[in-house]
Amino acid sequence: MKIIDKTIEILIPTDKLLSRVQELGAEITKAYAEAKEAPVLICILKGSFIFIADLIRYIDLPVTVDFLGTSSYGADTKSSGVVEITKDLSEPIKNRDVIIIEDIIDTGLTMDYLIKMLRTRGPNSIKVCSLLHKPSRMKVRVPMDFLGFMIDDKFVIGYGLDYAQKYRNLDYIGVLSL
Ligand code: IMP
Ligand code: MG
Question: Rounded to whole angstroms, how far apart are CA atoms 32 and 151?
């Protein structure tokens, strides 16, 4: 969707997004180059589906991909801290090296919950890859092993991220003035 609504301002344009995603792919490739088995990437739905689709094409390892559906927002712009699992993984992660692929870490509450939940399933390791992070809003410290961009405390949309389920199809990250 190229049409720019007058209430949307471009924060990260497509070319900048893709070149950073390419770098993240190279970082992940390097980090797991010596691993016995390639990692499983867990896409946190719905927000991360576009990010992971681009990212895996820049990872030069035989990774596997799985999907975890979560919902924490309702139609609001503030995290409730309550994470509902709407779709579970399709494969066990026992003894696997896991990389959680997230669109954005805001307060950290969602990621903290997800790491604790996935840890109970006995993976060999868990790392976190997030496209965006708003450091000023952090409430819980969570690891960010691979991070795309730090951004200011603004509500962002596009490239998978939504406001009330809309705007995921923008090919850039924009700021929505509410
Ligand atoms: P946290 O639990 O506060 O870290 O929020 C994490 C989740 O809230 C993310 O996975 C997003 O789905 C959503 N979220 C946080 N900030 C934004 C934003 O600026 N735009 C869209 N979704 C957001
Ligand atoms: Mg999300």
Answer: 27
Q: How many angstroms separate the CA atoms of 106 and 140, rounded?
A: 10
Shortest-distance ligand to the CA of residue 51: 2
The residues whose Cβ lies within 5 A of ligand 2, an ion, are: 47, 103
Q: How many domains does the chain have?
A: 1
106 in active site: yes
Please indicate, yes or no, whether the overall pTM of this predicted structure exceeds 0.90: yes
Query: Is there an atom of ligand 1 within 6 Å of 130 CB?
Result: no
- CATH number for the domain including 39? 3.40.50.2020
| Coil/strand/helix, residue 9 | strand
17 lines ligand 1 (CB under 6 A): no
In a domain, 158, yes or no: no
Element (H, E) at 94: none
Q: Which atom of ligand 1 is nearest to the CA of 103?
A: 10
pLDDT tens-digit map of 44-80:
999 999 999 999 999 999 999 999 999 875 555 556 6
- Domain of 123, in residue numbers: 14-151
